[in-house]
Amino acid sequence: xxxxxxxxxxxxxxxxxxxxQDGFDRLKTFIKEGKSYKIEFLSNITLQQGVxxxxxxxxxxxxxxxxxxxxxxxxxxxxHKLSIKHEKLSSLLTHKKISHELFDVILLSGSAGSYEYIxxxxxxxxxxxATIVIVQHIGEGSKHLHEIIEIKTPYKATYINDGMVVMPxxxxxxxxxxxxxxxxxxxxxxxxxxxxxxxxxxxVTMNSLASHYRDKFCAVLLCGYGADGTTSxxxxxxxxxxxxxxxxxxxxxxxxxxxxxxxxGHVSFIFNPNELINYLKERVISEQKEEKIVKEFLDxxxxxxxxxxxxxxxxxxxxxxxxxxxxxxxxxxxxxxxxVLNNKxxxxxxxxxxxxxxxxxxxxxxxxxxxxEHVLPYLNNYSxxxxxxxxxxxxxxxxxxxxxxxSKKMLEKSIIYATDFNPxxxxxxxxxxxxxxxxxxVTLSSIEExxxxxxxxxxxxxxxxxDKKLQKNVHFFTHNLTTDSSIGEFQLIIxxxxxxxxxxxxxxxxxxxxxxxxxxxxxLVLGQSETIVDFxxxxxxxxxxxxxxxxxxx
Length: 554
Ligand SMILES: C[S@@+](CC[C@H](N)C(=O)[O-])C[C@H]1O[C@@H](n2cnc3c(N)ncnc32)[C@H](O)[C@@H]1O
Hints:
This protein is an alpha/beta fold. Helices cover 38% and strands 21% of the residues. It has 21 helices and 23 strands. It starts with 10 loop residues before the first strand and ends with a strand.
């Protein structure tokens, strides 16, 4: 770290992703009591323990006047968990929202004569990601329209209830005697009386959907009497939404809605039913199309960054990708994938979203209980023990195991390899700093055990610091279960809540890797909702406890 004009400094900007943080010693030498400093972290620097503790201390020490500002959400959430005061810097480069012609919500609306077209559309438009909302004046399908839709079309359908979350791939029907609107992604039923002589009114729902979904919303006006749905088309199209309709002649007597709509000059297209289906088909993402696009992207992601997500559970990946797209502010796959492949920092954001780091101390206590009572006494016969926590996230699992070994006086002869494919989360694991509350919340079967557990931490305000004794025997390093090979021969492997994210093929491959990495009588611990399902793989392991999800090499 180079420091220029040392005497005049009041803002320190740190914008690097360095491994060794020796420069921070110099930071300490010139930060003086009584003077004001602002330290801004611009990049996702993975700060080491000493630096984090130093910052935690000076920021709350009244002798100093230090402000910390952080741009990257990962570092900011780490500091937040450790109760280290800081402000969040907003990103200077906000992504331009790329407009696209894909609809998230389609409204099918009309009154008399619209029923047959609604059914025709639902029967011919393949299931896709869009939400479909139906507002119809006359319930020609009566109270059972949702059932008829489920029988005659591939869609799931429901009448709207107040507070229902708007979900993709579902057909929602506006119920009579209410006005249906959307607020913050949730349906609301309002008692507003008739609007345009109608309850439900097409106009009310259409305006609400247009203001909420803008260019991702398409209103389809079908046959009906009157002018409901046509009175605010200018506002609807001003939001960027599309309005399309069918030819008036297709509606026989009930052509009024369509005619009025066309006369406003705000209808983009007038279709026959087949043209309408084709138009919508091109502007929604079918499940198959979505999987195909995402799989092609995963190939490129692997080529570009070496991370192989191709055999992860595809639907869960798609959900995570969509969450990341929302956070980054890019609405279409093409634009987002392009950004990820060309911009490392967007890739990192996606990587964090895909590597789900949720964990805690003594997670699933019954498996620790079983280890303590049945497995460790057996392993104690060894003079040296090697254990592996795979997919360890921020380290709690490995330290939990170390506390257990310590309680059995087996820690000294044990070495724990703790691995994850996310190098950023591993730095947090190495730091061994956790919110004190996490330690307070631990459940163990006796007070003595809880006291022993707590005795392996020291506390600095709200921060719990893992005892050096535990850290000495736990070695953290990156290892990718999809691409790296076996790393030794272990008496115990713990891999909890990782396999659930993999498809069957990858689970099989990783379980084979564990088999090859176990000593002849070695044990494997999986997560609560994980089981070995593949017939051939089952032969590699004996189930020791189905409750604790503990297996032994067969
Ligand atoms: C939900 S956490 C589980 C943490 C801990 N085992 C537990 O049960 O509390 C899943 C972890 O698996 C890691 N992971 C996902 N794919 C991986 C891979 N291919 N290789 C290694 N680690 C992976 C993630 O980074 C994440 O930290």
